[in-house]
């Protein structure tokens, strides 16, 4: 009862009706709620996930025989392979575009800057390392997401961690818990965060009122998501490659303009990664700051192991017709997000020297905007504002697809449930553009931490299935055939997966 009153009090306060609750009750219970949320975030993001995600990445890298390195070319082949059309799924390229739409957001522009600001240049080295190991994790979770997929009431493919947790591990209660955490964080609150970043950047660069930006972004997001996952996939497949190309192209131009400074920049990254460069806290202090901020940046950016991307991987019609092919597609997504796009931001900032200036007190997107302005002039501020508009907007529509999959698992994906989710997302975008309520965002971080922890445990427990699928795929490929999933080779899965989906064709 007390917990319910606490939650009710918090909701009233956030909505502007805090006067209904007595001051003594509000203060006491809000302090308790903040303490609980703070404890969970410290537990998840300072201990379990920072080390757990890295450990799981190393585990799958070793168990799958360094698959992300030896099969790197296969990742590109399966993305552009001739599409199998069955009317139930989206193409591998569309699935990659939607996953990148969700991954490539505010974190790629502002988050990298924060990592540099707090951890120094060495944070980039650990960000790279996290991504390289994370490719194996992304391969594993997306392979499982594809294997355990099913169809919804409209005959469209749906799936994700909730499905392989509930069916593969026979733990439906954990699947429901995972789904609720995903809907709260990715379906609602994080979209408010993205909208807040868009509104702030547009206000800073063009003096556009926050409410006006929120209204326009909410309207545009509504037009896309009310068209369903297929419409999201079409928009993402068009916007994501274009925006990423121009952003990376600009950074390549900057790189060429500063080519003589590149060797020193690379030296700075490596030395700082191990605390061998000057550091305020000494060698160990510099090493710790660089490692923790780099690992966190990589983790937030590419989402490998978080349990989000498998939701869209499950919606694809794989080509070749084998679960492992979608694993390769989403492993490539980690590479493109972190090794390419995040690195582009880091290079631009490092070559500008902005974050190293004595007494500079810059944070997040301000660092990125000033760094680009140092290279190309005042137009840099406007370019970053436009870039973050597209990056964050595609994150909003990409996040929606994950939440709809979660609705399918808990049995609320009928017309009413889906419409409520879409309406809630649009409202959160408009609301989030105008204000920042840190408590709500912290609560979403806690729910995402719970979600990621459940997913990591699940994919490790199901790693034997991932290994068997991988060996099967590579064997067929070595024999010169087009890998195809044959349910007859997996009798242990017949009562756990949707056999109708995977009937050999």
Automatic annotation (TrEMBL):
PROSITE patterns reported in the protein's UniProt record: NA_ALANINE_SYMP
Residue ranges of the TM segments: 42-66, 112-139, 171-190, 210-229, 236-262, 268-292, 334-356, 376-400, 412-434, 446-467
How does the entry describe its membrane topology?
Answer: Multi-pass membrane protein
* Record carries keyword Mitochondrion: no
Q: According to its UniProt record, where is this protein located?
A: Cell membrane
* InterPro entries xrefs: Na/Ala_symport
| UniProt keywords, alphabetically | Cell membrane, Membrane, Symport, Transmembrane, Transmembrane helix, Transport
- UniProt xrefs under PANTHER family: AGSS FAMILY TRANSPORTER, SODIUM-ALANINE, AMINO-ACID CARRIER PROTEIN ALST
Q: Which family does it belong to?
A: Belongs to the alanine or glycine:cation symporter (AGCS) (TC 2.A.25) family.
Name of this protein: Alanine:cation symporter family protein
The species is Desulfobotulus pelophilus
